[in-house]
Amino acid sequence: MHGADIGVRGFAETAEEAFEQAALALSAVVADVSTIAPRQSIEVQCHAPDLELLLMSWLNTIIYEMAVRRMPFGKFRVVISGLTLTAKIAGEKVDPERHQLAVEAKGATVTARRGGYIGMPGAWEPRRIPCLANLHILHLHQGG
Prior knowledge:
Elements (H helix, E strand, L loop, with lengths): L1 E7 L6 H16 L9 E8 L3 H19 L3 E9 L2 E8 L4 H4 L3 E7 L2 E6 L6 E6 L3 E7 L5
Helix pairs in contact: 1-2
């Protein structure tokens, strides 16, 4: 195993949808999301002093839940009220035959911060420069 970083982004018309898209991008780094059935749903909540740090907290909450439950997640429903995020996330226990996990996400961090509306009006992209969030990952070697 060896470590690396990768960036994820979420594009959408609302902050909630952008956070859901960033969560899907995180899941896609770990496994093929089309193989993850929404068999078990849990509710999570996180808080932060601003929306950009809320995104980092959100991604780290998903990474934590993946690790302790041994579950990849493929469905996300986010509600943001002020600086509190509440979400239902759904997935299933790891099935090595179907999920073929490529990496293990270890944590999300950010460097320079900038976010808000970009491009056309109504297109919300929480973003970090150089990328939205850096995921610290471990590459998992398959086989021997």
